[in-house]
Amino acid sequence: MDKSLILNKIKEYYSFKSNTEFASFLGITPQVLSNWKSRNTFDVELIYTKCLVFNSEWLLTGEEPMLKNPKKSDRTENVISELKYEKKDLLENCTVNEQKEGIPLIPIEAMAGYGGGEMQIMEFESERFVVPTFKGADFLIQVKGSSMYPKYNSGDIVACKKLQLNDLFFQWNKVYVLDTEQGALIKRIDIASDDDHIMIVSDNEKYRPFQLHKSKINAISIVMGVIRLE
């Protein structure tokens, strides 16, 4: 079994741009990651602990399915193990809800329809979470990539509140989730050169800011807070 391939698939799943970023997420040095690949091995227990979405059988043998669907009895344990709030008391108050109450966790791709109020979230959601601090949030999505680092890490989960495009007032320098023709973006918004555009800004200095015409925004939500990975 090619364990380097498994490592590459995990890296691709979380949209890490470099091995250094991937190693940092795992809590190891880039040299350790390089040694794993050259020796066709890795620490299964570490990977399984850090990446709870992956099927243990796939990690061990490479046999599909790659992702697992946790049993209902395991859900709360998985959430507590995988997620860490910026404030400790938030973690203690976070519970998984089976009665379709609370905040739905959706794929970022689903924000296109759900953020505009045109899609039933039932098609996408896997679980709902009761998080008292994020009262008023409409959905949760997972951050992918490093463009908003260090504010958000790839794998962090942000709570979002939907906004109406026809009555939109931007709070400059706040973080929003936007559905655009090029896909969903989690970015900081700032004033642009004219009233018809907004400036899209990444916290990671490696990503250059750019202007976006307001007509290119299909749906928009404001980020209310973050659930940070351990």
UniProtKB/TrEMBL annotation:
Keyword tags: DNA-binding, Transcription, Transcription regulation
Segments forming domain Peptidase S24/S26A/S26B/S26C: 127-220
Domain Bacteriophage CI repressor N-terminal: from-to ranges: 7-66
A molecular function (GO) term: DNA binding
Pfam families referenced in this protein's UniProt entry, alphabetically: Peptidase_S24 (PF00717), Phage_CI_repr (PF07022)
Keyword Zinc: no
A biological-process GO annotation: negative regulation of DNA-templated transcription
PANTHER family named among the record's database cross-references: HTH CRO_C1-TYPE DOMAIN-CONTAINING PROTEIN (PTHR40661:SF1), PTHR40661
Name recorded for this polypeptide: Helix-turn-helix domain-containing protein
Lineage summary: Bacteria, Pseudomonadati, Bacteroidota, Flavobacteriia, Flavobacteriales
